[in-house]
Amino acid sequence: xxxxxxxxxxxxxNELTSIVLAQLVDKKAEKDKWKKAINQWGIxxxxxxxxxxxxxxxxxxxxxxxxxxxxxxxxxxxxxWICTGFTIFASFYMIWMKKKYKKADDDFEAIRKDFIDRxxxxxxxxxxxxxxHVVFEFMKQEYNINILHK
Length: 150
Description:
Elements: H1 15-60, H2 70-75, H3 78-117, H4 119-122, H5 126-130, H6 132-143
């Protein structure tokens, strides 16, 4: 909310408009937080899978005999079990995070669309109405939130 008291937009918004804009900024931050977490877990999961293959190829495959069963080689190694467990855990955790992201995105979009639909109500006098483009540009530049159109 402190950022919304920025000198560029303070004269152009009333108290109610600043509260709604602050909610938009908060919902956008929550949405971005879940998106970042999903990306980090996805990258770490890819890294673990690749590291497992490198481990199997460079460390387990050269020590295996020609006549040993490859499945026994895989399932007898505890490092493979740990990496598999992490991959399964990360997959389920990412599914849970995607649900949280979807909810945050829906909340953000609902507030944003409501703000756009009720555009005439947010600007109380003629000067604020004529200078609302400053608020639109500020929100787009500072927070990457488009409140000009759906």
